[in-house]
Write a structure and sequence with these properties.
With 329 residues, this protein is mostly beta strands. Helix content is 7%, strand content 46%. It contains three helices and 15 strands. The protein has helices at 16-28, 219-225, 307-310; strands spanning 36-38, 41-43, 57-69, 75-89, 94-107, 111-114, 117-128, 133-142, 161-171, 183-194, 207-217, 236-249, 265-275, 279-288, 298-306. A twelve-stranded antiparallel barrel has the order 3-4-5-7-8-9-10-11-12-13-14-15. The chain has a two-stranded antiparallel sheet with strand order 1-2. The chain starts with 15 loop residues before the first helix and ends in a 19-residue tail after the last helix. This is Transporter. Keywords: Signal. Residues 1-34 form the signal peptide. It comes from Candidatus Rhodoblastus alkanivorans.
Length: 329
């Protein structure tokens, strides 16, 4: 799922030294995104952050893999997740989504469990098709205890979390130089507040900010509006993505031999998307930015179905209002 639908399962045994690493996985075990069309620009469903629009789409499955780290530098648990998300437009500018980080499992030690369910209401504040620009906002709720119970090997969070979001996207199709026209950038900023400050054992649940961006160079756009390319490259969008999370309050005192409770974690890496008429496939290499984020390069992958193109007059159109023009791509 999108960053909004990050898996919250605790993918580690309850050892204090690796709890911070578990939180890292919660931040990056995420997933599904929708693609957005603004003017001539197609913003793909990127993997570290959400795209800036509302859509009728189904992301199934989304996949995440990452090797976490122990504070002493040794490799931590190998973590995997399979998630999903369904996105539905209410009006042309207002959308609702439901999804989950899905099923999570790990090795070193072996354990498994389900992530909580998340819902999101998203609204496009402003867009300018001629300038290929868009701004949107959203409120996301991860519902506590809707995943695996507290008795499970990887229990879900017992508390809910509310996240306020801001999205932006800009394509450079209006640039004077042809080589700049395929470029586009998207960004997301989140502020997450747990509904419960303290856990039963007295530990605190931090408030966090998360921020990320993608830089895209769309061969898809180049072939359509700049110059014709060999067929092999015509529907590809290479990109570079970055996603970071910083705890900002409700921080426990740092423990010697453990990761700091206020350390920023994140991943960066290249990604590649194939845009079909009715679906998208994407992959990304997750490169941890520090030892608290992981030890080795991980992977993200997504298969996303465009319901607004598959069934534009039924399940693919807004609940209120006519089908939206999708262009030809």
């Amino acid at each position: 799922m999108n960053r909004s639908l990050r898996g919250r399962a605790r993918l580690c045994a309850p050892r204090t030294s690796i709890l911070a690493a578990c939180a890292v996985l919660a931040a990056f075990a995420s997933q599904a995104r929708a693609h957005t069309i603004v003017g001539n620009r197609v913003f793909p469903a990127t993997q570290t952050i959400d795209d800036p629009g509302v859509n009728d789409e189904l992301s199934l499955p989304t996949f995440s893999y990452l090797t976490l780290a122990n504070p002493d530098g040794s490799p931590g648990p190998l973590t995997y997740s399979l998630g999903w998300e369904y996105m539905k437009t209410i009006t042309a500018d207002l959308g609702f989504s439901v999804g989950s980080g899905g099923y999570n499992w790990q090795q070193r030690p072996n354990a498994h469990g389900w992530s909580n369910i998340e819902t999101e209401l998203k609204y496009v504040i402003w867009q300018n098709p001629a300038a290929e620009s868009i701004i949107a906002t959203a409120v996301n709720v991860e519902w506590g205890n809707t995943g695996s119970p507290q008795s499970a090997e990887l229990p879900s969070d017992p508390f809910s979390t509310i996240t306020f979001k801001l999205f932006a996207g800009k394509g450079l199709g209006d640039a004077s130089a042809d080589w700049l026209k395929p470029l586009a950038i998207t960004g997301e900023y989140d502020f997450s507040v747990p509904a419960s400050t303290y856990n039963a054992d007295g530990s605190e649940n931090p408030t966090t900010i998360a921020y990320g961006a993608t830089l895209q160079y769309s061969l898809f756009y180049m072939n359509s509006y700049v110059q014709e390319l060999p067929w092999l490259f015509r529907r590809l969008i290479p990109a570079f993505e970055a996603d970071f999370t910083t705890p900002v309050s409700n921080l426990a005192p740092n423990t010697p031999g453990d990761f700091g409770t206020n350390v920023t974690t994140g991943v960066v890496g290249p990604s590649l998307y194939y845009i079909g008429q009715y679906f998208e496939v994407g992959v990304m290499a997750q490169v941890p930015i520090n030892s608290a984020s992981g030890t080795h390069i991980g992977a993200l992958a997504i298969v996303d179905f465009f319901l607004d193109d598959i069934a534009p007059n039924s399940i693919g159109k807004p609940l209120f209002g006519p089908p939206q023009p999708r262009g030809h791509y």
